[in-house]
Amino acid sequence: MKRIGFDNEKYLREQAQAISERVRKFDNKLYLEFGGKLCFDYHAARVLPGYDPNVKLRLLQMLSDKINIVLSIYAGDIESGRLRGDFGITYDAATFKLIDDLRKWDLDILAVVITRFNNQPSAVVFKNKLERRGIKVYFHYPIEGYPVDVDAVVSDKGFGKNDYIETDKPIVVVTGPGPNSGKLSTCLSQLYNEHRRGTNAGYAKFETFPIWSIELKHPVNIAYEAATADIQDFNLVDPFHLGAYKKVAINYNRDVESFPILKLILERIFEGQAHPVLYQSPTDMGVNRAGFGIVQDDVVREASKQELIRRYLRYNTEYALGVEKKPTVDRAMSLMEELGLKVTDRPTVEPAREAARQAETNGKGNEGIYCGAAIQLGDGRIITGKNSQLMHAASSVILNAIKTLANIPDEILLLSPQIIHQISGLKQGALRQESTSLDLQETLIALSIGATTNHTAELAMKKLTELRNCEMHMTHIPTPGDQIGLNKLGINLTSDGQFSSRNLFMV
């Protein structure tokens, strides 16, 4: 049984109170920038065991009678077809998905803002799609000199030229499909236009990491640095907060670096207001209470250390695939070394490697390549599998895992040899594939077919749901069919970054 380190209910109470207190400081109008992931925040769930990946949606439900939701997306990301890494879909598709996900929680959006719009054709098509489904769309335009030329930015030719979004609730949540979507500029533009209309609206930021109320070198904060190693973010003590209040608070470099100019912009917007609420530090701007939801610090520390290793392995695999840079891998490794961690401290790494060695000893690889896999079940048991002429290592370990969970003896087969033979024949014949070994997606389909006549297979198949959020390691990079199957099962996978075939083209 996994230990719990985070209390969602305590966090929700603290967080809702902090937001309510902040909105009262202004003219009952607050623009709240939501950083990080609004839905499916699996990083937070991994480093804060017990954290509900959708707890922010629960928070919005609690405040639903007080909020409008606005989504912002950068026009350049639409035009370039930028991909969101966790889902593998473009940012415009991620916006559609986010709208659908919010609606499933009875949360509807007020509008979508396309930021830095400069007549990009794909952005126009995106706007048309949304408007024809009844969703309001607004344009915000590039501002020359943004953000440093404050005179130009805070003027009718700057924020003043942007479309003004009519809102009717005291809290306006501004979020987006990913980073650099223009959330901050959307908030600031709305502030400018609100103040021109006589409403003394305010701004605040809601971002889970780094957690400002715990120490700088706490593993959960170092895990955040690992998560942003690709953009070389780093945490530091907020010097403005320390100077103003003589208190230590943790923030990250980009917020600290941008604070002086952001403060100037806010002061210019609030100019002429009788009693403006002015922030003295970037930490002041935040309303995050995640640190107060931690109830077992040792559990959180250990989980965060495991996330560091997982991040390093992910970056190393992405480097092998050509999509990540060497400095990112090196940065993740240096953070691991800072906490005295090794790759083999991840419990599934060495068993997976041993499974690969056994496959080689037995000569039961595929194409002369010997792959091993290991998965850690919820009760801590580690199950292994290896590749063969019949199936991939991912297929083997998943079948072994569900047999273990269902208490099915190892010698009992879940898949009929006839079904395996028919699928292999189809792949080799009509589909003209070189490898006949079954990947995980094919294996799961075969299992579901077999379960119609095989009660044992049916019992095992019902155990697949118990693999969600389990940790798994493979000695080789999963093939597309393996990766799709593992993603759908919700398994947290890492690999050693070796290729499972000599072929460059993988299907």
UniProtKB/TrEMBL annotation:
Database matches in InterPro entries: DUF1846_C, DUF1846_N
Pfam family name, one: DUF1846_C
Domain DUF1846 as annotated: residue spans: 4-339, 345-505
GO BP annotation list: cell division
Signal peptide: none
Record key words, sorted: Cell cycle, Cell division
The protein, known as: Cell division protein FtsH
Taxonomic lineage from the root: Bacteria, Pseudomonadati, Candidatus Omnitrophota, Candidatus Velamenicoccus
